[in-house]
């Protein structure tokens, strides 16, 4: 209902007609980015945000615009995913209620901070790239290291706040941070993934509304491209998910994210000197 209200409020027939005339060939780059990110996410169940953000940063999109676009597209993908998990009984209601409010607060804080510092985009981009570099390492570690049973994680609200905050700033990381931590702590993977995915819808929605309130809808082509690319890739990724070795794919994804992130750090380093 919330998403529908926003769509009908901002995308009137007149606005859609005007946006169509402004469409440029650059949208194809964003379609490619959405396609690649969704193919990876469909195979791994994670890394959509970090992959899409890394791609957008590499083609010159500012950190705030990249994160805003990724979260706007994730509103649709996480909404469907969360609903299906809820429908199939994969959601732990207690865990969901514990994560959702801190997650929303963290998303709003991260999005507002990143949007407010838009004029410092040249400095923020290498910092965000350092974060995506770390996430690339986490993805590789997740592929190589076997899960070790640990004591149940406490202070789940702080974990959700921190994960959503970094997710808004970096354009990705909610799944790798929150899901990985909870599963590694001994929680049941099925209910952890379902609860975290359902919470992600509210995190992405809160982040998107904050971004659009501060920086507007000037990057609608990026959002459109990511959504179109993701829609095209979704059925393909679903079919390939059981055929591609997940461990190999995760290592490759981590390496690509690390390489591209290092490139962004090197290009942005002169601004600090």
TrEMBL record:
Pfam families: TauE. GO terms for cellular component: plasma membrane. InterPro entries: TM_pro_TauE-like (IPR002781), TSUP/Inactive_protease-like (IPR051598). Keywords: Cell membrane, Membrane, Transmembrane, Transmembrane helix. The chain crosses the membrane at residues 27-48, 95-114, 120-144, 156-177, 209-237, 249-267. Belongs to the 4-toluene sulfonate uptake permease (TSUP) (TC 2.A.102) family. This is Probable membrane transporter protein.
